């Protein structure tokens, strides 16, 4: 499967299927070579960002926000051709969504409060010295900013204006 085709498919799928596809794709692209725990941590960061509303309302908006996750960083022609890794990414994404649907106090969190992560071999972002939550495999998970779940319907518009 080619990334551009997957993102097109996500654009026409109904919710929540589209978001599950976008999260699965992100887990695959960002962490297919990582442990299950590392893949779950990547999914958790994306879900926490979705919860905040700062990067969009839907998971697809969050993971396709400019230069935030692999779907906007790698070539649209990138092929997702490791069937075993894809299957695991889908399972992890669906499990992460189920876990994240629980009330906050009942969720299992692997990287509590982490709003960002970086792969050491690829990135050296300006926020790399933020509070380190965990290091799992070759990814470091950081709390660059405290993210809180949206409290009202207009939160993302307000956040977008503040992010400006």
Task: Offer a concise description of the structure.
This protein has helices spanning 3-12, 17-31, 36-52, 59-63, 83-100, 155-163; strands spanning 116-119, 131-136, 139-143. The protein is mainly α. This is Cell wall hydrolase.
How does this structure look, described?
The protein has one domain. Helices cover 45% and strands 9% of the residues. It has helices spanning 3-12, 17-31, 36-52, 59-63, 83-100, 155-163, and strands at residues 116-119, 131-136, 139-143. β2 and β3 form a beta hairpin. α2 (17-31) crosses α5 (83-100) and α3 (36-52) packs across α5. The longest helix has 18 residues, at 83-100. It starts with a helix and ends with a helix. Mean pLDDT is 88; it is low at 151-164. GO terms for molecular function: hydrolase activity. It holds the Pfam family Hydrolase_2. Residues 34-141 form the Cell wall hydrolase SleB domain. Keywords: Hydrolase.
Strand content: 5-15%
Oligomer: single chain
The class by helix and strand makeup works out as mainly alpha
Instruction: Give the low-pLDDT segments.
Output: 151-164
Strand elements, count: 3
Largest beta-sheet characterization = 3 strands, antiparallel
Determine the fraction of residues in helical runs and give it as a percent range: 40-55%
Tally of individual helices: 6
Shape: globular
Strand order of the largest sheet: 1-3-2
The mean pLDDT is 88
Rg calculated over all Cα atoms: 15 Å
In N-to-C order, the SSE pattern is HHHHHEEEH
End-to-end C-alpha gap: 35 Å
Estimate nothing, just give the exact number of structural domains. Answer: 1
Protein name: Cell wall hydrolase
GO molecular function: hydrolase activity
Organism: Luteimonas yindakuii
Keywords: Hydrolase
């Amino acid at each position: 499967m080619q990334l551009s085709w997957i993102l097109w498919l996500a654009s026409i799928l109904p919710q929540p299927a589209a978001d599950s596809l976008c999260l699965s794709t992100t887990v695959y692209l960002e962490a297919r070579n990582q442990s299950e725990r590392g893949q779950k941590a990547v999914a958790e960061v994306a879900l926490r960002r979705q919860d905040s509303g700062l990067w969009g309302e839907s998971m697809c908006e969050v993971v396709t926000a400019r230069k935030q996750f692999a779907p906007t960083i790698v070539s649209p022609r990138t092929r997702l051709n490791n069937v075993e890794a894809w299957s695991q990414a889908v399972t992890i994404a669906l499990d992460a969504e189920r876990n994240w649907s629980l009330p906050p106090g009942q969720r299992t969190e692997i990287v509590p409060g982490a709003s960002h992560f970086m792969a050491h071999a690829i990135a050296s972002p300006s926020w790399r010295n933020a509070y380190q939550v965990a290091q799992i495999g070759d990814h470091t998970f950081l709390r660059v900013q405290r993210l809180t779940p949206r409290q009202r319907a207009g939160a993302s518009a307000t956040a977008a204006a503040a992010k400006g």
